[in-house]
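pasting for the record
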Amino acid sequence: MTIGSIPGETNSAYVSTAPAVYIPAEDAGATFYDTFEAAAVRSVGRTDLDMIFEAAGRRYNLPPKLLKAVAKVESDFRPNATSRVGAMGIMQLMPGTAKYLGVTDAYDPEQNIMGGARYLREMLDKYDGDINLALAAYNAGPGTIGRNGGVPLQSQMQGYIPKVLGYYYGGDINAGIISYNGSDRSGASGGTNGLFNFNEMFSQMMLIKIIEMQMSSPGDDKERVF
């Protein structure tokens, strides 16, 4: 089965538009919406994982729910998760993979999810949209799949892949809001640790935008319209 035929998603095939490296939302060329979203994602020491998954899905042309399904199986949304073989963070990036993806801190939720989304996108493109092969390669590496004759490992077919697809085709997945500030990687997952005040954040961002426009407008006697 190919990713382009997944029911319940857009009818168009998923074609890679991934950039060569991870580009933070705070880049100089980011739109006002991107800046607002990035601020909302990490407001007051809290990280909204669902918003990051949505942004990663848009950037890499992937269903956010598929990314969340992978994360649920890989780490259960724990940013501090480390496997016995060294895979790190929410979508469990290996050190070499993280370096290749340009992820400088694999325990940072936004960097990790964006990197994992890019890697899954690359695996889907590599295997022509075959979701089983793409998930198998994400989980064990394309080299392992190649050595296995281009098919998923038996253990993946019996365990990992059905689990991911079970979450993907199942009910809604709530990644939740976690506490994270770079030095604190112990936040709970899968739920909300307090609610983010979007109205307050939006008001602050609007005020900043208005001030920026006023400072850039010539003269003080002209009417300024947002």
